[in-house]
Structure formats: C-alpha cells, structure tokens
C-alpha cells in the first residue's frame, strides 16, 4: 500500500493532466453530439456514405473542421502524455504492475472516446484525423529516441542506478527486489549489464534497496 501511495504521489501530475484531457474529451463530445444531432436530421439516410459526408462538409464545413481539429488536438495531447509517462516510467524503473495498469487506463479513455466519434457518418474523417495524430506522435517518439537513447543507457561498472527506501521489514525489501529484478534483469542484460542488489537498514530502522550495474565481460 505504501509503495502504491508513493507511486501515485510521484506521478500525480500525469494523472492530473489525464483528468484535464478527459474533461476535454467529454466537453468536445457533448458539443459535437448536439451539433451532430441537429445536422444529421437533414441528411438523406438512403444516400451513399460519400454523399452524406459531402452534404455534411458542404453545409457545415466550419463546424466539422472545428470538431476535427479539437479531436486531433486532444488525441495528440493524450498520446503525447502516454508517451511521456511511458518514458518517465522506464527511466525511473517503475515496476511493471503499476505502469501496466496506468497505461491501460489511459488507453481505455482514448479508446472509448475514439469509438464514440467513429460511430457517426463522418467517421472516415475522424479516422484520418486519428491516423494523422498517431503519425505525429510516432515521429516525435522516433526523433526523441534517436536523440536521447544512447545518453540514458550508458552506465559505469558498479554504478548506483536506483535506491528504493521505506521498507518496514527485510521480507518486504526482498519481495520488491525480486519483482524489480524479474522485470528489469533481461532488459539490462541485452544492453551488456548485470543488475546487482544490496539490501540494507538505515538509521531509522527501515530497510532500503540499492541496485548497481556490473558490466558483463
């Protein structure tokens, strides 16, 4: 419980931003729903999809472009937030469980809103917007990875890379160490390092864990 509290305190800014974006999603969807309910009344339901889309674009171009832009903006910001959260979690070596649940939560929020907007006659336009948003974020990810990946993955021999404190018993520290090594050991071995742990007790009678890298020769 204490570990979870520390985790959510550390990443509370990401969750706050996600709440703000969720409000943006909901607001955009409510306003779009009102517009869509009014405009769809005049669309010939028997016409082909292309004709229906052309009718919407022709008579409501300004509104359609506005909602497409807002959807693109919110989607892109949401994906960038997930990307930043993922990179930060990897750099901080967060355990898999907490990171996995958070990523699933963020993706579910995007998925629900995307499905709602795609369930309209102008879904091809929203689909193009979402694809473009994914492309933009992917390009940013590739550029960021290319520029900074090498800097973050070079370690000295016996370099201290992480300290986790606040364990009340040695058993808790050992359990955390086992989970941490299970998740990260293979990743470091692929980079040419071996993870070594050291469990100690501080002056406050609490246990803490130190993790070091050893170069595999």
From TrEMBL:
This is Uncharacterized protein. Keywords: Membrane, Transmembrane, Transmembrane helix. It comes from Enterococcus caccae ATCC BAA-1240. The chain crosses the membrane at residues 12-32, 64-87, 99-116, 122-143.
């Amino acid at each position: 419980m204490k570990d979870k509290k520390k985790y959510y305190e550390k990443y509370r800014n990401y969750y706050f931003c996600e709440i703000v974006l969720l409000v943006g999603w909901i607001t955009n969807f409510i306003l779009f729903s009102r517009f869509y309910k009014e405009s769809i009344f005049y669309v010939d339901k028997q016409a082909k999809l292309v004709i229906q889309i052309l009718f919407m674009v022709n008579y409501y171009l300004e509104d359609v472009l506005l909602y497409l832009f807002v959807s693109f903006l919110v989607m892109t910001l949401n994906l960038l937030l997930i990307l930043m959260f993922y990179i930060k979690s990897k750099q901080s070596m967060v355990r898999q469980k907490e990171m996995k649940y958070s990523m699933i939560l963020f993706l579910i929020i995007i998925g629900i809103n995307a499905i709602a907007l795609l369930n309209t006659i102008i879904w091809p336009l929203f689909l193009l917007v979402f694809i473009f948003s994914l492309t933009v974020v992917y390009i940013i990810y590739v550029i960021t990875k290319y520029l900074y990946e090498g800097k973050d993955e070079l370690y000295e021999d016996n370099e201290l890379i992480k300290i986790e404190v606040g364990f009340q018993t040695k058993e808790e520290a050992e359990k955390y160490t086992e989970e941490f090594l299970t998740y990260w050991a293979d990743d470091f071995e692929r980079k040419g390092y071996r993870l070594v742990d050291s469990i100690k007790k501080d002056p406050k009678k609490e246990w803490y864990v130190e993790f070091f890298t050893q170069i595999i020769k």
